[in-house]
């Protein structure tokens, strides 16, 4: 890539022009199975667990949570949910979980978390991502790039643009600490803070709504309860999710919101997720399994363990040139991991990235991933949008609109506001901002046909108009007309490439660089005061 140092890591594997595609989030399937005494064997990849050798149980097609229920501030029976039948605890909580055993306990003679144990056993058989040979994940160390932040941002953009992930080792120093009330208080989270706690036992009863209401203090107290495995996914941590030297990668905030309000003042209500998703934190008990999913609404995902570690399991299509219809069908296979294993392995490459304290993992929009957290963990992260990745954003939001209730873990409905702001920035965009043809078409499509990208399971009426909708539409339509005559021709180029032949263009191919002089001519009239 132009501008990169000669010692930049080789991101090859299937490069962009043929390239692999990416995707994201889980279907939490939990079934009850009678536990069978088995011999345990050392896991090949996961140092903190053991695996069993009995046959895999069957699972079934399921949907996953697509939104949080509105929380009534009054006391609720869920606040202190007790098992309907007393559980027989097997082992006390420890710093890590061995999922070959019953990780919560036996209820009515059944291991209520057998499916989680079987899933982790399957994960343990997957290959660890190899820094030397992986064609899907680029591995670098922060100390090799700390003095070259611009080149690092270029490398990240190139990697994600090709549908690959990148892990940056040693971004922060590991901490000698324990996940407790004091630890979270030191990071600004009051022990009395009200939170929505995901409870694994509740998930066995209702995978669409596994939350119970509680506080930080209750969540920490339950770490010592051998019958509890819980986690929190939505701790607001605004501004802390992306390292300072990488924050310019967030084009939605840096370009979209920061640089358009003089021309287009904010004069209406704005969805808070436009800013809250810029930084969040996760807190996990030991033993949490998160099944395959993608993160909704097409954001780039940054995730960094601060305390503890995570096994991050990534899935990539074997054929990077499949149609969108085939891609969607193959995506649904990931919701049935244990039952149709052979079909999944025929269509998907999977590898595990072990994330230690201080490691930073960045994945492109729509990346399918699962995770296992073997020990008490606190992690931080963020979602953001970037002009170079809009083709992957569009594909991810297309999946959300069609099958979001199967393939994502939580629906967000704010993105159109940021997408409109990014369009409004284009007439004044710096020549240093790289723009590619397919991402540009995708961005215009998502603004012009916003109603087509409302996630399944959400309110279709949420595709609303604001004071920025009309000018954003005008700019988007001007771009389409100037470069591609009309939306039909633009869509053909976007789907099939300039040659208009199916099966030639990768879903993650970004196209050519946009002629900035032509774009400036096209948008000149939108720069008048």
Q: Main β-sheet, in a few words?
A: 9 strands, mixed
**End-to-end gap:** 37 Å
Strand share of the residues? 15-25%
Number of helices: 15
Description:
There is one protein chain. The protein has 529 residues and is an alpha+beta fold. 27% of the residues lie in helices and 17% in strands. The protein is built from 15 helices and 17 strands. The strands form four sheets. Strands 5-6-15-12-17-10-9-7-8 form a nine-stranded mixed β-sheet. It has a four-stranded antiparallel β-sheet with strand order 11-16-13-14. Helix 6 (251-257) crosses helix 11 (415-425), helix 11 (415-425) crosses helix 13 (469-484) and helix 12 packs across helix 13. The longest helix is centred in the last third of the chain and has 18 residues, at 390-407.
What's the short version?
By secondary structure, this protein is α+β, with helices and mostly antiparallel strands. 27% of the residues lie in helices and 17% in strands. It is built from 15 helices and 17 strands.
Write the layout of secondary structure elements.
Elements lengths: L39 E3 L7 E3 L53 E2 L2 E2 L2 H11 L12 E5 L7 H13 L3 E5 L11 H6 L7 E6 H6 L5 E5 H6 L8 E7 L14 H7 L15 H4 L3 E5 L3 E6 L6 E8 L2 E8 L6 H10 L7 H7 E8 L4 E4 L4 E6 L3 E8 L5 H18 L7 H11 L11 H12 L20 H16 L2 H10 L19 H8 L6
Parallel strand pairs: 5-6
Antiparallel strand pairs: 1-2, 3-4, 6-15, 7-8, 7-9, 9-10, 10-17, 11-16, 12-15, 12-17, 13-14, 13-16
Helix pairs in contact: 6-11, 8-10, 10-12, 11-12, 11-13, 12-13, 12-14
């Amino acid at each position: 890539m132009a501008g990169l140092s000669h010692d930049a890591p080789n991101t090859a594997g299937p490069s962009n022009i043929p390239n692999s595609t990416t995707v994201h989030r889980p279907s939490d399937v939990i079934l009850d199975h009678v536990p069978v005494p088995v011999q345990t064997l050392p896991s090949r990849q996961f140092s903190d667990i053991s695996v069993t050798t009995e046959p895999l149980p069957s699972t079934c097609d399921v949907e996953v949570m697509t939104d949080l229920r509105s929380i009534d501030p009054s006391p609720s029976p869920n606040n202190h949910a007790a098992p309907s039948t007393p559980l027989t605890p097997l082992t006390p909580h420890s710093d890590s979980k061995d999922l070959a055993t019953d990780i919560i306990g036996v209820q009515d003679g059944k291991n209520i978390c057998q499916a989680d144990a079987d899933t982790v056993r399957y994960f343990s058989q997957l290959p660890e991502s190899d820094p030397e040979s992986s064609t899907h994940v680029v591995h670098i160390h922060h100390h090799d790039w700390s003095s070259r932040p611009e080149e690092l941002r270029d490398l990240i953009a190139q990697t994600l643009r090709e549908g690959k992930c990148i892990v940056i080792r040693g971004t922060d120093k590991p901490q000698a600490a324990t996940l407790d009330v004091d630890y979270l208080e030191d990071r600004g989270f009051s022990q009395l803070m009200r939170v929505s706690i995901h409870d694994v036992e509740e998930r066995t009863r209702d995978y669409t709504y596994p939350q119970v209401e509680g506080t930080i203090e209750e969540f920490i107290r339950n770490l010592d309860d051998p019958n509890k495995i819980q986690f929190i996914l939505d701790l607001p941590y605004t501004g802390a999710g992306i390292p300072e030297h990488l924050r310019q990668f967030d084009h939605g905030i840096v370009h979209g919101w920061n640089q358009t309000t003089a021309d287009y003042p904010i004069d209406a209500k704005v969805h808070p997720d436009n800013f809250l998703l810029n930084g969040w934190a996760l807190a996990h008990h030991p033993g949490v399994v998160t099944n395959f999913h993608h993160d909704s609404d097409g954001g780039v995902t940054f995730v960094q363990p601060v305390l503890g570690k995570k096994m991050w399991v990534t899935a990539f299509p074997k054929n990077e040139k499949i149609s969108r219809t085939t891609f969607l069908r193959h995506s649904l296979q990931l919701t049935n991991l244990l039952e149709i294993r052979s079909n999944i392995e025929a269509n998907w490459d999977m590898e595990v990235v072990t994330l230690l304290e201080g490691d930073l993992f960045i994945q492109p929009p729509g990346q399918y991933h699962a995770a296992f957290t073997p020990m008490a963990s606190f992690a931080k992260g963020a979602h953001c949008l970037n002009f170079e990745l809009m083709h992957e954003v569009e594909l991810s939001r297309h999946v959300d609109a069609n099958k979001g209730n199967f393939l994502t873990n939580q629906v967000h409905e704010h993105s159109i506001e940021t997408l409109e702001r990014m369009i409004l920035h284009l007439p004044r965009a710096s020549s240093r901002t790289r723009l590619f043809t397919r991402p540009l078409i995708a961005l215009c499509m998502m603004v012009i046909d916003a109603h087509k990208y409302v996630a399944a399971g959400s309110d279709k009426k949420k595709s609303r108009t604001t004071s920025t909708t009309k000018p954003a539409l005008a700019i988007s339509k001007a771009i389409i007309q100037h470069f591609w005559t009309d939306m039909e021709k633009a869509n053909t180029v976007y789907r099939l490439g300039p040659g208009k032949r199916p099966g030639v263009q990768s879903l993650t191919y970004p196209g050519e660089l946009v002629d900035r002089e032509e774009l400036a001519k096209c948008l000149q009239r939108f720069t008048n005061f």
